[in-house]
């Protein structure tokens, strides 16, 4: 028996009050009962720019891996499946809660698409599909595409040659051959400096492990931070994603070729895992366990870059997916730096590498 028979009325009243309170700030709060969360999107009541103000990413590895595989296998076929569209459709259906994910749900969607129905037709009555698509596309939109990568030429003494590919063109933040462990620690409490939530995923590993650029982009930040220690911030070319790599190694945290403003490639060595941070003094090991703090900030408008309402997403399942693509490295004994073994060229990146 329901102990709270009037709770639906309470939900309606709460949603109504929030809507009224936020209309003055040009923001509409949508209560999504299936996910038990409030989703925030901008509305144009005062002529201000419209952009997403809140997003929560809960797509599971199983759904992402299957959507990715379907996308890659359908490349250059009559019907090209788009993995972001598949995930956005299911995200809308589940109210963002991928604990409800079932493989057959994606199979049914793909069957309809392969029979000629379009994603626009299938989502025309799904009120929040555009919101989920824009959010998921900001997170995953540049992960898949055409690129060229060096591979060993088995017919030419193992020399390197360029090979065109389509698929995952982002890399794990940890180099190939180096072990690490992690668990879903997004949102857990932190107390150094002030009480706050953990806005990333800690990858436990060995000091000196090469840290890789997940996606190609531009180095926006590089140096010391009392919370993150030696850290690097890299912005994607489309400006939508800001990758944060923190607690790098004492004394030699960065690759010697790295500098603010540099254009880096996905899978390139940018620094080395360590345990610096939690100190007002620079270059101090004050973290108890060596690890890489890896975070991703989503930016729909530049006003969100550094503000109290920054949008950091849970990257735990993304890190699991990125293990499908890890960049091999080799050490230069003279410089003591590590370099990638296989270079990459991206199509239509807008930058000459």
Automatic annotation (TrEMBL):
Write out the entry's keywords from A to Z.
Membrane, Signal, Transmembrane, Transmembrane helix
Q: Does the keyword Hydrolase apply?
A: no
The chain positions of domain M23ase beta-sheet core read 197-297
Q: Does the keyword Transmembrane helix apply?
A: yes
Q: Which residues cross the membrane?
A: 12-31
Which Pfam families does the UniProt record give?
Answer: Peptidase_M23
What CDD domains does its record include? M23_peptidase (cd12797)
Which GO terms fall under molecular function for this chain's record?
Answer: metalloendopeptidase activity
Q: Which InterPro entries match?
A: Cell_wall_metabolism_enzyme, Dup_hybrid_motif, M23ase_b-sheet_dom
Signal peptide as annotated in the record: none
Return the protein name: Peptidase M23
Give the originating organism.
Ruminiclostridium cellobioparum subsp. termitidis CT1112
Q: What is the lineage of its organism?
A: Bacteria, Bacillati, Bacillota, Clostridia, Eubacteriales
